[in-house]
Amino acid sequence: MVEFQFRSGNANGECDERTPATLPGLTLGDPYTDFILCFVYSYLPEPPVSTAAPLSCAPAAADGVDRISILPDVLLHKVVSRLPAKDGARTTVLSSRWRSLWRSVPLVLVDTHFLPGGDAECRPARAGATSPAVTGAVSAALKAHPGPLPFVSLTCSFMDRADRRLLARWCQLLATKGVEVLVFVNRPLPILSLPLPSELFGCVSLRRLYIGAWAFPETDTLPHGVAFPNLKELVLSFVVMQDKVIDFMLAVSPVLETLSVVGTVYGLHARITSRSLRCAQFCLSELEEVAVVDAPSLERLLMWKSDGEGLVSTTVKIHHAPQLRLLGYLGPGVHNLEIGNTIIKAGTKARPGTVVPSVHTLGLTLHFEVRGSVEMLPSFLRCFPNVETLCIESEEETRKPTTGNISSMIWRKISPIECVQSHLKTIVLREYRGHSTEYDFLKYIAEHARVLERMVIVLQKGLSDAAMEEVIAKLTPLNSARANRDSKLLFPVHKWDGGTTWTLQAGLLEGSVFPMDDPFFCQVS
Prior knowledge:
Layout lengths: L30 H12 L30 H9 L3 H6 L5 H9 L3 E3 L19 H15 L6 E4 L9 H13 L4 E5 L22 E5 L20 E5 L6 H8 L6 E5 L5 E6 L5 E5 L3 E8 L5 E5 L10 E4 L7 E5 L5 E4 L2 E2 L17 E6 L4 H12 L6 E6 L12 H7 L4 H5 L3 E7 L3 H13 L5 E6 L5 H11 L17 E3 L30
Parallel strand pairs: 1-2, 2-3, 3-4, 4-5, 5-6, 6-8, 7-9, 8-10, 9-11, 10-12, 11-13, 12-15, 15-16, 16-17, 17-18, 18-19
Antiparallel strand pairs: 13-14
Helix pairs in contact: 9-11
């Protein structure tokens, strides 16, 4: 599981305290760009072969008999198929029998395996002698091996407009040799003017496709009849694209199950119409609007850091998503929410056309010191009457607080909220600062949540021990305020590293199931 906070991570998906300039393959530059690139590398799928194990054999037997070569072909096929491409190709010099073996097994092609260090930690920081050498090795492997290609990862070449013919040839070979999983990340960030080769759209055998740091070509210029009949997973990272790209890819991918968009920097309007899509997630993007128009299979809609650091007011529209179980992070007072044809406002009453009863897990971000956000919170909660798990990130407000002493008044005067009274079992409040506005909300939950079992409070990063003890002491009265005296209410208090906890794996499937059933990390022990 890759766990992210808004700081740099390393190529293994682990949080890293080093500066972006000291991370593998990164250079000094725009911090946002460096972070995006690091984020892209951190969640790339692991190749099925590794360079970690040395290629070696036992000393030759005293009698000189070659016992490896007398093994049956089926075993030798398994041996060669587990080797990185460069090592598999080296076996062809052993004998005529071995020469045919490498060509007869599926090829796993990972360009970082051709680097001197043999892994992703050694990606070159800038274009130079290493990049052309790797590019040449990839070209030679694609030309020499007949396929199939179950897994191809190309992430360390520096491509520009002079490489268009080479890129087209690569994609032609990938298409004809049946690539199934393709990771295709260009290197010259932040230069994103190079479009994906149109030949890529002939790879009909693709099941998983990860694209990073490219410009998406004009869809009108692509060959007629483009289709990805087998594509189930699509990740678009730092891709320059028009709004209609999402429509296009959903339309030509009839079995697509997961769509992830990372790092778009031009206000994106995403329209989701798909009968097969089960998860859509948008992170580190400027998302102006996401409209779930017709998505009968959609189970998860996830958004993280998709408001351009507060510069974009995202509109979230939910029209037809009867299977939607998990939704977040929404920001009352920041995000505009529309259910059906109704724009949700402070004081909007719950009725059949303004609720999404299928949602059981809800993630919110909230500025507790902003009156408009606090006043919108009850209306947002009413839209999801069956929520059982609620995770709220308390956002720090840098402007002058506007709630003042009216917070408790807001919660005393509101009408009943269905999910709070009848269904809420777990609530997690992260980045708790001990403000009275946060406490007023928790008190309301404790007093009205009849079936509540767990209330988890995660303290703001950086609180001193004395401040933490003071905050905990102020929370103690919540125990006596609980609505259901027979329930076992827990109030664990945790020190967290700060920031929103996130992982892109929240939306990725393994087989037919989501391996992460707790993407908001609510099960804090």
